[in-house]
Design goal:
The protein is mainly beta and 353 residues long. It has 2 helices and 30 strands. 27% of the residues are buried. The structure holds 2-acetamido-2-deoxy-beta-D-glucopyranose (NAG) (12 copies). Keywords: Disulfide bond, Glycoprotein, Immunoglobulin domain, Membrane, Signal, Transmembrane, Transmembrane helix.
Length: 353
């Protein structure tokens, strides 16, 4: 199970807007994830926020911001407005006014100790929490300012970094083409988390055998194949961080299949080594047969010493996997040539001398 403390669902987060360019971060928040895309859609912003057009901009020092950190909202171009206020939504953060040479700053009780402004009227907010996402507004009543109210809209995402990503599976051995593998990914903290699985280094995508459910926290592979051994890792990420889990491996029993045998032709009196191979996990138990009669030999190698002509014929290798309960066989033909070839060769050699 994915433990996500924050299930806030924002739909639109605007990073900044000016008269000339409007940058919007549109985010669709599910319970466990957020998908954000940057877009440049002036009309959308002015539709929602007709007052976004101002000669002044507010620039956040970071966006999105990590929970617990600070953010500074600077005015661009920098100004030294005599009086004004900062607010988020309808809630005032602080107000200031210049009396003589001195700034009088009044911080509202909810923001006491974590809000301040500097000479250029940039607002610094510290110890940010998820609640601090919102529309930030700077109002000024200075006579020098064209509009009596300067408002700029700042939305920002406050994301908690992802931590402690762990994967687990019930780790039983699975039989190829029959069993279902299940791995779970859990994240103990973080917000707006997206989860992606990797098999070794390639991203796992859903298909008819692979299911990604519960916001990708559950990976299910039905009718596992030998290529599903892993290692599988789960990567959790959000706009501010990412973390990768421990690997999970599956034990998958398969085979025997893709069998082959090497035999070839030999002359009498030579030694013959036949090797039988198969793809199998666990390795297949093997037994040999000559002309369909089982031999005592087990194991993947059959050794025949000083072979005679009557050892020519079909050799079979039977492979059995005791976990999958499957068996296969492969047959090869051993051709033992007599000494005639050699004699003929010597005769010919003689002929030429
Ligand atoms: C944003 O869109 C406007 C109008 O569609 C365009 O003129 C401007 O070049 C765009 N800005 C960027 C950075 O793409
Ligand atoms: C966030 O706001 C909710 C309700 O508005 C409140 O219950 C909660 O205590 C606030 N959390 C913080 C950290 O301010
Ligand atoms: C990490 O997550 C696991 C499983 O959710 C939990 O048992 C463990 O206590 C967590 N560790 C830390 C340091 O949070
Ligand atoms: C492994 O877990 C899955 C899902 O939780 C379950 O269907 C399956 O029976 C479990 N297998 C074993 C051997 O426990
Ligand atoms: C789930 O995983 C897929 C494939 O990696 C990815 O495209 C998708 O964005 C993920 N969804 C979530 C909710 O994290
Ligand atoms: C993961 O975080 C590291 C820095 O911690 C960053 O370099 C990397 O690009 C991030 N990867 C993704 C996929 O977000
Ligand atoms: C998983 O398999 C990889 C290689 O296939 C291996 O390096 C790793 O040690 C295995 N991990 C576990 C937990 O068995
Ligand atoms: C065949 O094997 C036997 C026993 O290992 C060995 O003595 C002999 O030299 C080998 N013959 C050839 C031709 O390699
Ligand atoms: C024989 O089979 C083994 C295992 O199945 C395989 O690795 C090898 O490439 C095969 N050899 C040939 C010549 O097909
Ligand atoms: C084959 O096995 C049988 C019984 O296990 C044994 O009696 C016989 O001697 C063995 N033959 C050879 C050639 O090892
Ligand atoms: C299969 O054989 C191996 C040894 O050859 C043994 O350790 C294992 O327990 C056997 N498995 C079954 C299911 O009989
Ligand atoms: C050997 O394999 C063939 C298929 O490749 C199968 O038809 C035959 O029955 C097998 N022989 C034995 C004795 O299992």
């Amino acid at each position: 199970m994915l433990h996500n403390k924050h299930t806030l669902q924002y739909s639109l987060l605007l990073l900044f807007a000016t008269c000339t360019n409007t940058y919007v971060l549109c985010c669709i928040h599910g319970l466990y994830h957020v998908n954000c895309i940057w877009s440049n859609i002036s009309s959308l912003v002015f539709f929602f926020f007709p007052e976004a057009c101002s000669t002044m901009e507010v620039k956040p020092s970071a966006n999105p911001v990590v929970v617990g950190q600070s953010i500074t909202l600077s005015l661009s171009p920098p100004t030294s407005l005599n009086s004004g206020s900062w607010a988020v939504g309808d809630v005032f953060i602080l107000t200031w006014s210049k009396l003589g040479d001195k700034d009088q700053v009044a911080v509202y009780p909810n923001y006491m100790g974590r809000a301040s402004i500097d000479g250029s009227r940039a607002l610094t907010l510290s110890s940010l929490s998820m609640n601090d996402s919102g529309v930030y507004t700077m109002r000024s009543t200075d006579p020098g300012v064209t509009a009596s109210l300067i408002r700029t809209f700042i939305f920002f995402v406050l994301a908690e970094p992802v931590s402690n990503v762990t994967t687990s599976s019930n780790d039983s051995a699975l039989i190829e083409h029959m069993d279902t593998a299940v791995a779970l990914c859990s994240v103990s903290s973080g917000s707006f988390i997206s989860l992606v699985w990797f098999n070794s280094s390639s991203e796992v995508t859903a298909n008819d055998r692979v299911q990604l459910t519960e916001g990708n926290s559950t990976l299910t592979i039905v009718k596992v194949s030998r290529h599903d051994q892993g290692p599988f890792t789960c990567c959790a990420f959000n706009p501010v961080s990412n973390a990768t889990s421990n690997p999970v491996n599956f034990t998958i029993y398969y085979g025997p299949d893709n069998m082959n045998m090497t035999l070839g032709s030999h002359t009498t009196g030579s030694n013959v080594t036949a090797v039988c191979a198969s793809e199998s996990n666990p390795p297949a138990q093997m037994q040999w047969a000559f002309k369909e009669q089982l031999l005592n030999t087990t194991g993947s190698v059959l050794e025949l010493y000083h072979v005679t002509k009557d050892q020519s014929g079909s050799y079979s290798c039977f492979a059995f996997n005791n976990e999958t309960n499957l068996s296969r066989n492969v047959t090869g033909y051993l051709d033992i040539k007599g000494e005639e070839g050699k004699k003929y060769y010597y005769k010919n050699t003689h002929f030429y001398i």
